[in-house]
Amino acid sequence: MAYLGNRNASGENNSFKILDDLAFTTTFNGSDGNVVSQSADTITINNHRFLTGSRVTYTNGGGGNITGLANGTAYFVIKVDHNTIQLATNASNANAGVKINITGTGTGISHTLSVAFDGVNTKFVATYDGGTKAQMTRAAQLFLSHNGVIQRPHDSTSPANGYGIDSNGSVVVFSAAPSSSDVIFGNLVANNFPTFDISDNKVDTFTADGSTTTFTLSRAVVNNDNILVALDGVMQYPSDHQNVRAYSVSGTGSNSITFASAPAQGTVIHVRHIGFAGASTGGVTGFLGRSGNIQIIDSDPIIGIQSGSVAIGTVRTLNFVGAGNTFKQTGNTIDISIAGGGGASVWTTSITGIQTASAIVGVGTTSAGDPDLQGIGNSARGLYISNGMILYDNAINGNHYIGTSMNGLMAGPVSVNGVLNVDGNFVVV
Asked: How many other CB atoms sit within 10 Å of the CB of residue 313?
């Protein structure tokens, strides 16, 4: 199948794809007993693109024939599963499951089976990116040209003209079989999945019986990428179009999962469907007594404040007052530095006295018997001046007055450079 023009760029959701050739050739090792089974009469080709009833041509690739097959001969496919096929001599036998008896492997590693535009085949598997099966819900998702003529799509498995699609959404059905001289090319316009909601996160659980390999899922999936599978809690590695691993979806848009080998009896199979988790079917309906499109307001109690692990309350805003406060954000953490911690304090009210828990002996003394206290206050209760003045080796400048019931003490030399009026008690030493 030929394509004309440049490769199209991917659109939104990477949903615009160029189809692989509908006609194709698959190469396999015809000498390998694990590939060619005499007991089951099967040929194993991982994630093959064959359909039951498809006409294929067998070649030995220059080696020896697989016993039961003839080089260059056309046969018809019986699809056993997505990795295994059998061959029949005609279409009727293929549809009836009457297989060819394979009695021995061939020689050589380049045996081939080819699907062609041969005037017989009308059904072809639609794939992109080298083997990923397309998922279509409508035939119009495909854009097909037949010899340069755009074909009409039909949502039918038996279109009267143009083309249709089969029920699983991955097979193109032509109204007439293309011939070897025909040129067909096409694009997959969309690769749709029907729903996007929280309900897509469905979980299916099965218990293995040791022999069953295929299990029916609760919903159809697009491909292996849409499910996560665990056996007894151990995640499994899905197959792709190049390698067979633990499991695969049996067909694009299928609700069946097939394991490469049957899980052991009693094994718990856990299948999680992956979808878009939205809140359209449930979730939050209100916040802080409000509903609708809710916005945070200043009165919302968002920040909880504690001191010494004791709750103080909740606030919306913290306001730090004063100069020198610094803030640094690191991720979701804000470091706050408050200036003044451990520094000097300023008294903002008047101080009328100093109260002590014990008696003050004196300034620069160690005990009540210190000789420095002699002549001043041998009671060891300190020096008392009431509403007067005390001067030591100083001068009185200006005019001063010691009123009645007031006391004064001068210890010289004291110079009186102004007028000193004394109505109270005054002592000059």
From this structure: 9
How far apart are the C-alpha atoms of 272 and 217, rounded to whole Å? 10
Give the type of residue at 257: I
SS3 assignment, position 87: strand
Task: At 254, list the tokens.
Answer: 């299928």
Helix or strand holding residue 50 (H, E): none
Query: What is the b/e burial string over 270-287, where b = at least 16 CB atoms within 10 angstroms of the residue's CB?
Result: bbebebeeeeeeeeeeee
Tell me which amino acid residue 60 is.
N
Of 168, 58, 162, which Cα lies nearest the Cα of 115? 58
Strand (E) or helix (H) holding 92 = helix 91-96
Q: How many CA atoms lie within 13 A of 55 on its CB side?
A: 16
Per-residue tokens: 143: 């854009």
Q: What is the CA radius of gyration of the chain?
A: 49
Calculated CA dihedral for residues 58, 63, 68, 69, nearest 10 degrees:
20
- Tokens representing 207? 């218990």
> pTM of this prediction?
0.50
Top-confidence residue, 409 or 277: 409
CB-based contact 100:89 (threshold 8 Å): yes
Start-to-end CA span in the chain (Å): 129
Q: Which amino acid is at 123?
A: K
CA angle centred on 192, ends 269 and 10, rounded to 5°: 115
The amino acid sitting at 82 is H
CB 125 within 8 A of CB 49: yes
Render pLDDT for 212-267 as a digit per residue (tens, 0 to 9): 999 988 887 777 778 889 998 888 988 876 778 898 886 555 688 889 899 999 99
Cis ω on the peptide bond leading into residue 263 (within 30° of 0)?
no
Task: Quote the DSSP letter at residue 13.
Answer: G
